[in-house]
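Reply to dn_fold:

You asked what the input looked like. This is it:
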Amino acid sequence: MVEHLSLGPSARGEWAPGSDCDLEVPADMALSDAHAVVSRLEETVRHTKQQVPQVNIHLEAATNATVPSQEVTRQYSDLAARLCKLAAEIAGAESAHEARLYRPDEPGVGLHQQKTQEIPALDVVVHTTFRVSVSLSRVHLQVEQIKRAFRQAYPTLGKITIHAEPGDERSPHGRREEGN
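and this is what came back:
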């Protein structure tokens, strides 16, 4: 899985895909096998994107640990609504249209015990719609602003994922109209 791909100016001064990225591979993969995967990927990028003269891929070991979690959106519907409102203040009215909250399973800690905390360490996924004509760099900037706003308002939140979706140019803030 490609974790990060940088953007930078090409030799001609034009903005084009940059040459540095991180590639996540299974943690138990042999270095020789991982290097072979990276070499093939670098060669493919150089061959298909000739405006990228140099490609440097950094290997990252994927963690095999999966933390089970339970969806708790109903139990925290007020928080889900507040998160959507915060996201919409940045991305535009009605752009954040779905928030899901997840509680990582912790042995011996029940939902009723966590609910006594003000805001527990919940993982958040918010779906936000942007106009199709908005540049990816602008969407990325707004996604990062949304994450910062969430952290500032609710510092105990766990992992925050903002799912940016293309919308419909004909509707406000790119939101897809029902039936389209």
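The radius of gyration is 20 Å.
Hope that clears it up.
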